[in-house]
Amino acid sequence: MDLHLSTAEPTEAERRAVDSAFAAHRSPDDVPGADVRFPDSGHAARARRHILLPALHAVMDAVGHLTPGALNHLARVLSVPPADVYGVATFYAMFSVTPRAPHVVHVCDDVACAPAGAEAIIAGLAEDLGEEGEGKEACWVRSPCLGLCERAPAAMLQLAGRPDVSVAPAAIGGLRAELDRIATEEPGEPNRVPAADAAFADATVSVPQAGQPQLTLLRRVGVVDPESIDDYRAHGGYEALRRAVALGPERVIREVSDASLTGRGGAAFPTGVKWDGVARAPSRPHYLVCNADESEPGTFKDRVLMEYDPFGLIEAMTIAGYATGCERGYLYIRGEYPLATRRLEHAIATARAHGYLGADMAGDGFTFDIELRRGAGAYICGEETALLNSIEGHRGEPRNKPPFPSTSGLFGKPTVINNVETLYNVLPVLAVGGEAFAKVGGGRSTGTKLFCVSGAVGTPGVYEVDFGTTLGELLELAGGVRGELRAVLLGGAAGGFVLPDGLDLPLTLEGSREIGATLGSGVVLALDTQADLTGTLRRIAAFFRDESCGQCVPCRVGTVRQEEALARLTRGAPKGPELTLLDDLARVMQDASICGLGQTAPAAVMSALKLGLL
Amino acid sequence: MTTVLLGSISRLVTVTVDGRELRVPEGATILDVLRDRGVETPTLCWAPNLTPINACRVCMVEVEGSRVLVPSCARKVEDGMVVRTDTEKVRHSRRMVLELLASSVDMDQASTDVQRWMVEYGVDPARYGPPAPPEDDRAGHRVGHHHAPDGSTAANVAQPVKVDNDLYVRDYARCILCYKCVKACGTDAQFTFAISAAGRGFDAHIATEYDGELPDSACVYCGNCIGVCPTGALKSVREHELREDGDWRPEEQTVTTTICSFCGVGCNLELHVQQGSIVNVTSPSDHDVTHGHLCIKGRFGFQHVQNLPDA
């Protein structure tokens, strides 16, 4: 391949940023000292295409936008065609290929934050900084759900030259003060812990149950110091890994199968089957991927787990890698989770320093290491095959299945992909054994489940309950409904609504399916009679239009037409033709879209229409 | 001793298509089987000389045991597979895919097959409302953001034609984003990689780096992207000008097959001639040498044979 490069050159800062990405992501098969970063280094250079996304991040972090010089430099050193680099860079909402202010305030205006005052924040920022995306030193943009719903309204500051921070609950006064401080203060050490993280010190804001003895998945939240491996070990940390090594890989998989553990990311696939498939796959190497790209509107359980118990995920990934014969795990975390990213980076480095990651871990002759990859603002990358493409440095477009990742996944190799909450469940499975684990709940819904309760409830937060708890009981646990309940959005934007007469719904996979709903990612968003239901629905429709990757026609155009029809309905257009049209659109999206995003894009809208909520 | 060349030997598997049991070679796609048995299946992003792209979703069929429809172009047959091509679900999806495209893209220059399918499946793009006005800078949309619509017009990809070189034009108001040009420019034929999909969602589009002009890109003007474009989004400047002037008359065109004289490879050429003048050059997709792809000389280097003295 002849690369056709332009004459645009990178600045020194951009060059350094790209170098840092290379240094941080050396491949295991790298020849020490060999520099393959020139266009004719062929396969050796192209095999590093997976560095593209981290390198784009590095340039964004350093400079605040992607210049032609930086993209040209990346094309040269990775031997990737410039058109491809541009195609990848323009896929992600956190990247900008046009000049942009170095300090960007992403203001969440999604289903949980909009009723909590997002528009007032936006109005204030617009007054200070001008139109969306405009401004020299700082600018603001609207954002889909930032996964901080228990602390709504939320904002995230994407800052060139210093660490990104989440601000929640956000208020215009606080954001103004923060922007002023950033404008006048020296950036300081690039790795220093930002002051804004202190707002997250109190875990009970996110997990009101924190410290209660009956908790399983959340038992360490608010109890351990998330930055101390010694404290983690003092609270039972690494006991599950010791047990796993004592059992051996096959027994570990059998325990997980006996536990009837199902995936907690939304699809509820049996984890044991997935693990067994990869463990038996003859092709090598095997890869483990942790899907921490939690982006479903209203979902924040994975973020909370990762922020307050990061070592738990590292241990669970290590066990999964051990059981399925992986030597390398990728942790793909959404780009809008700066605090969780910092905690996990620290946990990975600490675990490695203590011999819990790396070659011949803990003297057991087993090698496993974890690489953290940041997403960059694309809900679709939570779809497992889109996530794989994203890691590999391609556009985050879902792949056609089959082949499934368990036979041909990351870099074409057998790959096990698990959601964060699923992996945390592995720890109690090993602690009590698969059969004992399966005694809680029943059927395919065994163990405990995390729910993200937000909206019009007394105490929003992540709640852990046994499968089979009713929706009403869960709402009571969260302090009861504020005001008069109109509906509950269950399962997220890809889920559906439940009316007040359905609160005796048992929260199980089977129970929700019976009423045509889904637990999805565990979203329970309560809407009272004051809530703007039409606005919520339009936000969901807009969300899917924004987040469609654009690859297949049913989703790319269908989400646009769905939003337009909804707009006409809310303006009072005759219902008949619009409902026919929405139904036609829903069917083609469900039946013919490539991936789950398109297939579930009409779910909430159709559910609302069916229940007469519009 | 005589050497007999055998093709790759493949096992036969049994599949049932619309109630008929068939023995077909293992490794074939469902579409291969349907085409072989004369079951007409609409396709847009599929081409015989490209690996299946699986983006347009118009060739969908029902496969027993699958919750959703299955792309016949990409799914390989399996023993015991039960396929249905003429169910309400299949017809609905095909109609909607064609209708969604027709409501957002100018499909006027798509093939006569496509026009016929739109009639046969009962496509009605007008029900989404009048088209929104063309936009000059669709590529400038911010990723993951759009202005909330009021539903009075139907969003679409209408935009000016890009004419930035002497050989071909890019009329992206006609682009259905089938990715065929990207594949032909890349790993399926040319390995030039001048274009890629950029942007996301409804704003996704085919672009060179920084949405620049073709002469500033890696383009080598082989025109293989034109060769695979199903909707007239990519076409030669000559065809574009004739169409603009109302002088494009496909019904009057003759096709003459010949062999390219520029080098020793021996590519088959099909010369499309209108009113005594070559208006396009193509190559058959089933030709052993070209697989339908040509180079700049074969596709565009025909002026010398038309240097006739002015009559």
Strand order of the largest sheet of chain B: 2-1-5-3-4
- The SS-based structural class of chain A is alpha/beta
Q: Which residues of chain A form runs of ≥5 with pLDDT under 50?
A: none
| The first-level CATH class name of the largest domain in chain A | Alpha Beta
CATH topology of the largest domain in chain A: Rossmann fold
- In CATH terms, what is the architecture of the largest domain in chain B? 2-Layer Sandwich
What CATH architecture of the largest domain in chain A do you see? 3-Layer(aba) Sandwich
Structure description:
The complex is a heterodimer of chains A (614) and B (311). Chain A has 614 residues and is of the alpha/beta class. Chain A has helices spanning 12-24, 42-46, 52-63, 68-78, 82-89, 118-129, 172-184, 229-234, 239-247, 249-258, 271-280, 301-308, 310-324, 338-353, 384-391, 420-432, 434-438, 471-477, 509-514, 533-547, 553-570, 575-592, 596-600, 603-610; strands at 103-108, 138-143, 155-159, 165-167, 286-292, 326-333, 369-374, 415-419, 441-442, 445-446, 448-455, 461-466, 485-490, 496-498, 523-528. Chain A folds into five domains: 12-89, no CATH class; 104-191, Glutaredoxin, CATH 3.40.30.10; 229-438, 3-Layer(aba) Sandwich (Rossmann fold); 447-528, Roll (Ubiquitin-like (UB roll)), CATH 3.10.20; 533-610, Up-down Bundle (de novo design (two linked rop proteins)), CATH 1.20.1440. In chain A, strands 12-11-15-13-14 form a five-stranded mixed beta sheet, with helices on both faces. In chain A, helix 3 packs antiparallel against helix 4 (68-78), helix 9 (239-247) packs parallel to helix 13 and helix 21 packs antiparallel against helix 22. The radius of gyration of chain A is 23 Å and the shape is globular. Chain B has 311 residues and is α+β, with helices and mostly antiparallel strands. Chain B has helices spanning 30-36, 88-104, 112-120, 180-185, 224-228, 237-244, 296-300; strands spanning 12-17, 20-25, 60-63, 70-71, 82-84, 168-170, 196-198, 205-207, 234-236, 254-259, 268-274, 277-282. At the A-B interface, helix 4, helix 5, helix 20, helix 21 and helix 22 of A face helix 2 and strand 7 of B.
